[in-house]
Each structure stands twice: as structure tokens, then as C-alpha cells.
Design goal:
2 copies of one chain form a homodimer.
Chain A (H helix, E strand, L loop, with lengths): L6 H7 L5 E2 L9 H5 L5 E5 L5 H9 L4 E6 L2 H13 L5 E5 L14 E7 L17 H10 E11 L2 H13 L2 E7 L8 H5 L3 H8 L5 E7 L4
Parallel strand pairs in A: 1-4, 2-3, 2-5, 3-4, 5-6
Antiparallel strand pairs in A: 6-8, 7-8
Helix pairs in contact in A: 1-4
């Protein structure tokens, strides 16, 4: 059953205490929200949340925030984290375009971009989450030396992202053009919902890490 | 007919005045060899020379040097350049491993690596022409701001090269995972012998440019 345009989804969402509708109010105060000062990793476009809830389970000493604007998928992520009683994860019901409004400089220790919309048409390039204009926002919230980790099945988006990240001064590493035939065991373990389907079909997954080296 | 182990190949080679067997003697004096001070671009592993002779024909205001240690292919390149009466190209019958002995710092304005041997086994990684140890040699001879242009059909070599180049401080750009479906018209035009065959078979060609930004 698709949940789009089901008004009760929004009502259900609002019963969860791990969901923030106005996350800007915690800018600079995320340690208060989590009741600790552990590093914060965020996933932009969290979808149904399999990836980030799995990470949160594996790493209780890190805090996680999943950002997603579409309530019809986000509700699954929120439920999942609740069912697992995870204390170190919350969700921002929020548009990634305004992400820099939610964090102080250096407040984010890692950004995950998983299977972002490729926006294949050139005139939509600005909407891709690795477009230069988004990278400028990420630089504002990432601590220098910290990283963006990206996975996608889309060759063109990956190619675009390699170029945009390199141009913006990120240092690329651990690039693989076929993750599930690679030696990156840890990165292979934690999969998104999309990724599980793609891998079952034998499709290739591209992955990179990009370290923000700070302004020269 | 294969030319390997044909002693007359070496004899024929030595009749050409566009071939250098001891190129170290021109280190720092390439302007003397070419009778001008035009920028010098080099191709490492020139093979039968289609790529670099095509470039030399197109760009009379640049000088070209093709480096190749295997005389059984190099002889074709040397003949080709002679038949076309190209004055702005010569060949180094020389091992790429010692390339830094042939040029002063900054004497090379661009390095081309086309369809280099992928050396697929891990224990042979050091032989790949984009291994960190080779990149250190290239840094010694490239002017800062100048570039390495690389093409290959081998996914694993390309992946390796992206990582090595980024780690070594080169800034990557114009990366494509499918050159002949891309908008890089100029890079598509000049093809190596291998490339022509691969493209006819519909195989993908990977390409990148990597600018050496100089020591920080």
C-alpha cells in the first residue's frame, strides 16, 4: 500500500518523539537533543531508513540523523528506529536544500548520500545532491577532515559527483566502481532497501568517500 | 606478422632520426632537440603511435614525445611519423620507469597515459603507470597546474588510478565512465589503435584528467 496522500500518516508521524519537524531550533544544540556530545552523522534522503538505523544499531557511541522530506517513506524509518528502541537516532522531516540551517559549522562529522535521485536531465543538474551548490552547504556544516560517503547505482550521477567533489576541493578516496565485487567489506555490509534489490539483480553499485580538506 | 625478436627491427629503428635511444642526454635541452621552445607533451607507452602522431599533426605548435620500450610496436610509430613528415614529434626508446631522468622539473606540459597495462594482480600493482611511485616521478617533471590525461578500457585500473591520483594530490576533472557516450568531443576524436577496436565492439572507455597542483 502506498502511503502518499494518506493524511493519517502525518498524524502518526507526529506521535513519535524521535522526529523533528523544526530541526533548525536545535542548530548548535544537538548535544542537548541527544543528551550527549557524541559525533553526529547524517544521511540526506534517508528514505525508509534501513541504512541509517542499521548503522545506529552497530554504533551506539555515534549519533545519527536521517533527513527526509517525503513523509510517505520517512514514516517507515521512524517506526523502525522506534521498534528497535534506538536512542542514538532521530529524523528530520525537512528539505535537504536548507540543511545548512540545522547545524553550526563543524557540528556534523559525516554525511551519507545513498542512492540520491540522479535527476538525469541537464536542466535539473542543480537538484542533484552533489551539485556544487549543495557541496557549499555541506562545507558549512562539516568539520574539516571529515567526509561525505556516497553510494549510487547510477553511473551518470557517480561521474557527475566525482567531478563536482574534486572541483570543490574534496579529496576522494576508496572509490569503487563495483562495490559488491570489492574488498570494502564494511561498506558492503550496511545496505539500503534499494541497494539490496539492485545487488540481488547483479547490478553494479558505485561508491566513494570524499574528505573536506578545509579552505586553503 | 609479429615483429618480436626480429633483429632487423632494431637495425631499421636506428636509421630514423626521430628516435632517441639515450634521451637522458637531452634532459633540460629539449628546446635544442626540437629547435624551438614549444610546450612538450609526452605519451607513456606509446605503442604503435596512432594517438600521438594524430595529435602532432593537429597541433603543429606543440612538441610531442612518445615513450615506448618495446621496439616491435615502436617501429610502427616511428615509421608513421616519418611518412607524415612530422617535425614536432620524436620517440624515446626507453623504459617509463626512468622517465624522470629525461626531463628537468617543469619541462613537460602534459602526460598522456592511454590503455596502459592494467597489471591485474595485486602483487604487480607497483608496475601500473598510475601507482603512487610513478606519480611521484611525474610530479618531478610536470609544471604545476599541468595535467595527466588518461584513458583505459579497464575498470579496475581506472578505479585504482582515481584513488592513487586523488591521494597524491592531483585534482581530478572531466572524468567520464563512458567516453564515447559523453560530450567530450575532442577527447573522442583522437583514438589509439586499441581504442578503435574497443569502440567498434561497443566497449566502454574510461577517461580522466588530473591536474598537478604543486606541493602545498
Amino acid at each position: 500500500m502506498r502511503l502518499r496522500n494518506k493524511p493519517w500518516v502525518k498524524d502518526e508521524m507526529r506521535t513519535f518523539d524521535n522526529l523533528l519537524e523544526e530541526p533548525e531550533t536545535y542548530k548548535g544544540r544537538w548535544a542537548e537533543w541527544f543528551h550527549n556530545d557524541h559525533p553526529i552523522q547524517i544521511e540526506l534522503g534517508t528514505g525508509k531508513g534501513n541504512f541509517i538505523t542499521t548503522l545506529a544499531e552497530k554504533n551506539p557511541d555515534l549519533n545519527y540523523l536521517g533527513v527526509e522530506v517525503r513523509e510517505e517513506v520517512l514514516v517507515y524509518a521512524v517506526r523502525k528506529a522506534k521498534q528497535k528502541n534506538l536512542e542514538n537516532i532521530s529524523f528530520l522531516w525537512f528539505n535537504v536544500e536548507k540543511i545548512e540551517q540545522c547545524f553550526n559549522p563543524g557540528e556534523v562529522s559525516r554525511i551519507y548520500l545513498n542512492f540520491s535521485d540522479p535527476w538525469p536531465k541537464s536542466r535539473h543538474a542543480k537538484r542533484r545532491l552533489t551539485h556544487a551548490s549543495f557541496l557549499e552547504k555541506y562545507k558549512q556544516i562539516l568539520l574539516p577532515g571529515k567526509e561525505i560517503h556516497m553510494k549510487t547505482d547510477n553511473e551518470k550521477l557517480f561521474e557527475f559527483s566525482l567531478n563536482e567533489l574534486s572541483h570543490a576541493g574534496f579529496q576522494l578516496k576508496n572509490i569503487t566502481l563495483d562495490l559488491h565485487q570489492s574488498d570494502y567489506m564494511e561498506a558492503r555490509e550496511v545496505m539500503t532497501e534499494y541497494e539490496q534489490k539492485f545487488v540481488e539483480r547483479g547490478m553494479k553499485i558505485y561508491r566513494l568517500e570524499a574528505a573536506w580538506m578545509g579552505d586553503k
